[in-house]
Amino acid sequence: MAEPVVRARGGFSLVWLIPVLTAIIGAWLIYHTLSDRGPLVTITFRTADGIEVQKTRIKYKSLDIGVVEAVRFSRDFSRVEVSARLNKEAAHFLRRDTRFWVVRPSLSIRGISGLGTLLSGAFIEIEPGQGAAQTLFAGLETPPVVYADDAGKRIALISKRLGSIDRGSLLYYQGVVAGEVLGYEMANDYRNVLIHAFVKAPFERLVRSNTNFWNASGIDLSMGPDGMRVKTESMQAMLFGGIAFDTPGPPEAGAEDISGLVFTLHEDIKSIQEQAYASKLRFVMFFEDSVRGLNVGAPVEFKGIKIGSVIDVRLEHDEKSSGFRIPVLVELEPERIVERSALMRRAPLEAFQAMIKRGLRARLQTGSLLTGQLYVDLDMQPKSPVRLVAGNGGLPELPTIRGNVEQMTVAMRGVLEKLDQVDFASIGRELEGTLKGTNAFANGKQLDGSLADLAAALASMRSILHKVESRAEPLTENLDKALIAARGALEKSQVSMNLVNEVLDPESPSHDAMMRLARELATTARSIRTLVDMLERNPQSLILGKKPQGEPQ
After folding, report:
1. What is the C-alpha to C-alpha distance for residues 449 and 71, in angstroms, rounded to an integer?
2. DSSP code, position 383
3. Which of the listed residues 35, 55, 137, 508 has the most CB atoms within 10 Å of its CB?
4. Pick from 402, 424, 400: which is nearest to 413 by CA?
5. What's the total number of domains in the chain?
6. 217 CB neighbour count, 10 Å cutoff
7. End position of a domain, from candidates 106, 138, 170
8. What secondary structure, in 3-state letters, does 301-348 show?
9. Which pLDDT value is given to residue 545?
10. What integer is the mean pLDDT of 251-259?
11. What is the pLDDT of residues 83-106, one digit of tens each?
């Protein structure tokens, strides 16, 4: 048999077309997948609470832009690293200032947030930032108070104490919400607190270099002539703290560059008013009274108007006299006194020295009987001598006098000293002797005999009065009969007189005689009536006689 002849076939075989096409399609698919795939970012958090792989979404303005692909510990196990894949369109969000935080249900002073995550689960919110591209970020533990697209200015405040101010506390301008507190931290000196805040538009134009900030937290309670006054910025500021600000003077057009400025947060608006007086004079005073109740910050008043305050109260030892003295350092504000006289137009120190020569004196007065707080009262006392303790060295000295309370104490002390000099022992002995004599007289036989005689005399007098009363009753009846007869005779004489007047001529002599007789009868009747009245009141006078004039009947 003939052997087969193998020949090499030339040209391209169609069989190889299938794997070539498969490779091309695979490469295109790989390229398309890789080109459409978004960037991979790593975010570190303190905990992975609420974060789940392939479930926790990355959102921006409530739209999904990525998903968590892996969760693992950092190398030192101090934090949790979350790897998330973002969409291709979100690649430009990854900048240096971009922020990430986990949205969970939370309750804060701003209210309740994240309630939707109770059903859908927690998610990671992103806020795009500015700067160079970056894929490694440190996530925020709490949501930011102010977002990047909010118009306004960030400011820094410094305060001695934080008080009720917290993250999310509101800023007020004339009672209107104008911003929020972003957070706080200790200052570099560890003696003050640095507070970061954000003022929203359009209120940021009102913040200038001379703007005053004060703590508006809590309640401002004050007592005045109109009664008790309670003032608060708002209910939210009373519960969660707040800051108020104001810019003195008329509002100026345009905004001022305040970048780099740190504003002072005052305790209240009163402290700002206190600092409005730039000119201050310091004096020292030495009081003989007790300074218990006089605290630093106590007011110094002149005629009831505050012109300064106490800035220091200390105890000093005098080596020469081996005694102690209490200097009280005060700071006066001469700008509080209106310059209407030539005296106040001088230098402030010269003006006060002239007033001291005219009788300006200081004394301690009680400001409140309930708390016992004292204050320094300045008044003109030209008759009081100038008493200086420290001499001419150091600070200028204001002479002092005793206060009203101390004067009363000295007076009471004098009265007690006089009472202490009284010999109460001898007075007690004399009083004891007098009481013994009175006791002997009261319990003696002479007093018993006198009381017995007095009892016998009263019994005799009672018997006599009884007899007089028994005899006076018949006599009274006879007198009544005589009075009735006299009244009848009087009536008959009156009738007779009338008949005579009718019969006789009025001009005859008998007419005059009859008139005299009638008058005498009338006088007799009045006398009888007086006698009967007297016997009715005092029937015993028939036996004992009429009492002398002036004695009671």
Report:
1. 124
2. T
3. 137
4. 402
5. 4
6. 21
7. 138
8. EECCEEEEEEEEECCEEECCCCEEECEEEEEECHHHCCCCCCCCCCCH
9. 56
10. 70
11. 999 988 888 888 888 999 998 876
Q: Is the same domain home to 165 and 266?
A: yes
**Are residues 270 and 303 both part of a single domain?**
no
Residue-wise pLDDT tens digits, 178-205: 998 888 888 888 889 999 999 988 888 8
- Tell me, yes or no, whether 446 lies in a domain: no
203 and 109 in a common domain = no
Expressed in angstroms, the distance from the first to the final Cα of the chain is 199
Mean pLDDT of the 447-457 span: 71
Does one domain contain both 114 and 190?
Answer: no
- The verdict on 270 and 317 lying in the same domain is no
Query: What are the backbone dihedrals phi and psi of residue 23, each rounded to the nearest 5 degrees, phi first?
Result: -65, -40
Residues 245 and 130 reside in one and the same domain: no
Instruction: Point out the domain boundary residue: 138, 163, 183.
Output: 138
Q: What's the angle, vertex CA 132, arms to CA 127 and CA 137, rounded to 5?
A: 50
User: Nearest CA to 511 among 501, 522, 502?
Assistant: 501
Q: Which residues does 389 contact at the CB level (< 8 Å), separation at least 6?
A: 286, 325, 397
Pick from 110, 145, 244, 264: nearest CA to 193: 264
DSSP 456-469: HHHHHHHHHHHHHH
Say whether both 397 and 500 belong to one domain. no
Single-letter amino acid code for the residue at 407: Q
338 lies in which domain range?
281-412
Asked if residue 46 lies in contact with residue 80, where contact means CB atoms within 8 angstroms, the answer is: yes
- Is there a domain that residue 458 lies in? no
Record the tokens describing residue 512, joined without a space: 């005059």
Q: Specify burial of residue 58 (Cβ count, 10 A radius: 0-12, 13-18, 19+).
A: buried
Q: Can you give the length of the chain in residues?
A: 553
pTM over 0.90: no
Judge whether 177 and 171 are in contact, CB under 8 Å.
Answer: yes
Write out pLDDT tens, residues 525-545.
777 777 667 766 776 665 555
Does 437 map to a domain?
no
Would you say residue 433 lies in a domain? no
Structure tokens, 263 = 């504003």
